[in-house]
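Slide 14.
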Amino acid sequence: MLIYTVCGAGIGTSVLLKSNVDRVLETLGLEAEVKAVSIAEAAKPDSPAQLILTTPEIVEELAGNHSEIVAINSIFDLAELQEKLQQSLG
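Slide 15: predicted structure.
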């Protein structure tokens, strides 16, 4: 499975979110490739990601993508990340 963590440029929030997603996946005993990318990369219609995690203000910009898009309210809240990953990957 390929998971994108997304922010405007792909070098700030998305990198922090990726780090926390990696931690949660390890805790859950799940394996996935997680990549921090920009909005432009994630919005491509042929995006290979099965799951996109981003902040609520970016969700609309990714509309039309075939990937599942999940809004994360707090990128530092590991409990929220765990809950939303379990719902999506469950």
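Speaker note: The mean pLDDT is 92.
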